[in-house]
Amino acid sequence: IRELCQECHSAVSHSQKTGLSLEDARIDKTAIELVKTKKDKVWLLEHGLEPASNAALRRKQIINYLSKDI
Q1: How far is CA 6 from CA 11, 12, 20, 22, 34, in A?
Q2: Distance of CA 32 to CAs 25, 27, 35, 42, 62, Å?
Q3: Apex CA 53: angle with CA 55 and CA 62, to 5°?
Q4: Residue 4: what pLDDT?
Q5: Exposure pattern of 19-57 as b/e (b: 16+ CB <10 Å)?
Q6: CB–CB of 49/61 below 8 Å?
Q7: With contact defined as beta carbons under 8 Å apart, do 43 and 34 qualify?
Q8: How far from chain centre, in Å, is Cα 46?
Q9: pLDDT tens, position by position, for the chain (70 residues)?
Q10: Measured between alpha carbons, how far is 49 from 46 in angstroms, rounded to an integer?
Q11: Residues with Cβ within 8 Å of residue 3, at least 6 apart in sequence
């Protein structure tokens, strides 16, 4: 057992639940948080992307964009 900060623990838990790698889980959590707080459209525009029509598609856009930066 290892001690983790809350953000790291959240990413590890999400990774275990979804079967994603730790890095992919962090990206997914970031996208989820942006959509949940309704900041996804602004974030996409700031990164030069045209926001998709619904939240699920915008979440995929964010994941794809962040995955390319790895």
Answers
A1: 9, 10, 18, 14, 18
A2: 10, 9, 5, 14, 9
A3: 50
A4: 86
A5: ebeeebbbbbbbbeebbeeeebbebbeeeeeebbeeeee
A6: yes
A7: yes
A8: 16
A9: 678 899 899 999 999 999 999 999 999 999 999 999 999 999 999 999 999 999 999 999 999 999 996 5
A10: 8
A11: none
Q: Which one-letter amino acid corresponds to residue 60?
A: K
- pTM for the structure as a whole: 0.87
Q: Which two tokens stand for residue 44?
A: 């996409």
Residues 12 and 24 sit within 8 Å (Cβ to Cβ): no
